[in-house]
């Protein structure tokens, strides 16, 4: 097992009717910037509940944060936060709203000339506005980590940043708030959670059986609950399990002491930036291609995954690996996710641009840092 330091300061408040806890979690003297997305929280009643709970607080609102939060939009929120001198941020919605708000928290206090440097040049975050979160879409796991992914329309980029100062102080997770989610968002969230686990699990064995079993438990639970939520979307227990899986998938615990990959996410971010695909859609396309391309490097773990998660007991190691890849692909397709770029009408026209970006950033992907420009091109071709 590799050396690691693990610290997670986020307080999780989980369960039905937990929004009322906001009064205990946010001091009355705070000036709050309430952030949200396209208005779904007004349709599902969450907005009305929160504004009623916070009626005695100073609350300023900023809506319209996109599902891939745009730098241009977020900078408007930064300007508002500075103008109103807000001292607490409360994102309400999915991981994109929370990611965008983490950037607002850091950018509002940034002393440099261009806040984009926090993302593009990894400029240090020395100060940030405190924030909490109310999560209504389980997917990104952003509610229990200090990371965020931000897009910029003007440069067609989608990049990540992270800081210990961007951990939410608390996150409220009420499974009932997810009942009204469209099926597409539910499927995207399940795929995102699944691939978060795979990025930390599907590497090489590192003498960490506990982390492997924790990862396998999340994967198997997602597989089981995915079928149930389609049949009965109002089943509280199913929604609760999916919500907790998403949180556990990226709170850092299963990644302790093990190598991590993240090639699927990095390539997927470029597909979103250039083609506008949902994040979950890109992951469903890219992960099977990465697994095929890296089959020999990941053979031992793929075989283990086939046996432990999919129950494949017969065949050679390579046959088990192939079955595991196909079962993963089939799982995504059962969720209604397409697993090829051609199914979205996308050709190889921009593949060179994508591969060149990794070259320009001097970025090598994978747990062995063995995926460079040439390998990215090969993986993208497998995505077709």
Structural commentary:
It is globular, with a radius of gyration of 20 Å. The longest helix is centred in the middle third of the chain and has 23 residues. It contains 15 helices and eight strands. It has a six-stranded parallel beta sheet, sandwiched between helices. It folds into two domains: 167 residues, Rossmann fold (3-Layer(aba) Sandwich); 201 residues, Dehydroquinate synthase-like - alpha domain (Dehydroquinate synthase-like, alpha domain), CATH 1.20.1090. With 384 residues, the chain is an alpha/beta fold. Helices cover 47% and strands 10% of the residues. The model has no long low-confidence stretch (mean pLDDT 96).
Short précis:
This protein has 384 residues and is α/β, with parallel strands linked by helices. Helix content is 47%, strand content 10%.
Which structural traits does this protein have?
single chain; 384 residues; alpha/beta; Rossmann fold; Dehydroquinate synthase-like, alpha domain; 2 domains; two-stranded antiparallel ribbon; 15 helices; 47% helix; globular
Overall mean pLDDT score? 96
CATH architecture of the largest domain: Up-down Bundle
Class of the largest domain in CATH? Mainly Alpha
Query: How many strand elements?
Result: 8
Assign the CATH topology of the largest domain: Dehydroquinate synthase-like, alpha domain
Most strands sheet: 6 strands, parallel
Low-confidence stretches: none
User: Order of strands side by side in the largest beta sheet?
Assistant: 1-8-5-4-2-3
CATH superfamily of the largest domain: Dehydroquinate synthase-like - alpha domain
Provide the domain count.
2
Quaternary organization: single chain
SSE pattern: EHEHHEHEHHEEEEHHHHHHHHH
Helix content: 40-55%
Q: So what's the overall shape? A: globular
